[in-house]
Specification:
Elements (H helix, E strand, L loop, with lengths): L3 H5 L4 E2 L5 E8 L2 E3 L5 E8 L7 E3 L4 E2 L1 H5 L2 E4 L9 E11 L2 E8 L5 H11 L5 E13 L8 E14 L5 H10 L4 H15 L16 H13 L2
Parallel strand pairs: 5-11, 6-11, 7-11
Antiparallel strand pairs: 1-2, 2-10, 3-4, 4-9, 7-8, 8-9, 10-11
Length: about 220
Amino acid sequence: MKNIANEFGERAVTLCDGRAGLRGGLEVKATADTNLPIIEFTASDDTLDRYDEVIEAKGWDLTNYRRNPVFQNSHKYGDVMHTLGKSLLTEVRGNALVQRIEFAVAINPVAKLTYDLYRGGFLNAVSVGFIPIEWEDGGGATAYRRKFLKQELLELSAVSLPANPNALQNALKAGAVDLAELRDLAEFLKEFCSAPAAPVTQSGVSGTAGDETQLLHWVKQLIR
């Protein structure tokens, strides 16, 4: 396999297991179960993305991911607060990678907020982290700059959290979230925001960062 860092330059990032890999975002095609905190996402498909790249669905290696199929907040792994749920199903259907995510709404207030924002249409994207195994360059007569033929899925994340303050305010006005949930979230976040930041881990993500402090600030403004 080619050297990923050399091949992809600044696009290469350190993923959850310490290996260099890539991340690719996709506007969500989501279907919510009305009775359970479960949303089915089209996590990736073989359409041309914003990098002018194509990820072939049939090339996904899901073996390692299925052993620990967590759903994270913005590719963060330093604290348990960033684990938003788990994948109940991860499979390739036709030209798409489909994942059915159960959100940990009863345990993690951040997961509850995230679920409500997706269900209400205030979050509209997920992002896969993967290790490229085999690819080909395009150009010329091809529409793509690069096509990934084989790749290993390491992570799936909600993006972007924390949501911007307007999204939170609009979600509150629309009834997608309520004040009681935001108060619970504020209490939960206080514990993490008052603690010193954890050192950067092998995955390159610190445990408690400015994002959580900013989210706490926005939530406090809404519950006044």
